[in-house]
């Protein structure tokens, strides 16, 4: 069975209106120049938050996104 084509992270963020096409283009240029991960480029340029990246990656992988800030967890559990 063929796996469905993975949606690109930048496309997801643009679809969710969290990122503009212009910001995506700037980030892709920066990524090519520096070799950094695209999500890191988005965050370091202030285009999106780490939480927004996490949500987009969850969507990309077709898994639920769970924000642990809303749960009581013991610090040793999440190490």
Written description of the protein model:
With 79 residues, the protein is mainly α. It has one domain. The chain is 51% helix and 0% strand. It contains four helices and no strands. The longest helix is centred in the middle third of the chain and has 14 residues. 13% of the residues are buried. The model has no long low-confidence stretch (mean pLDDT 91).
Distance between the termini: 36 Å
Low-confidence stretches: none
Number of domains: 1
- Strand composition percent: under 5%
Overall mean confidence score, pLDDT: 91
| Biggest beta sheet summary | none
Overall radius of gyration = 15 Å
3D shape: globular
Write the layout of secondary structure elements.
Elements: H1 9-15, H2 21-34, H3 38-44, H4 50-61
Write a brief caption for the model:
With 79 residues, this protein is mainly α. It contains four helices and no strands.
Question: What characteristics describe this protein?
Answer:
79 residues
């Amino acid at each position: 069975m063929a796996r469905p084509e993975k949606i690109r992270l930048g496309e997801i963020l643009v679809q969710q209106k969290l990122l503009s096409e212009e910001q995506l283009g700037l980030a892709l240029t920066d990524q090519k120049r520096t070799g950094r991960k695209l999500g890191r480029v988005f965050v370091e340029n202030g285009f999106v938050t780490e939480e927004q990246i996490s949500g987009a990656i969850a969507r990309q992988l077709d898994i639920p996104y769970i924000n642990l800030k809303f749960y009581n967890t013991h610090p040793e559990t999440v190490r």
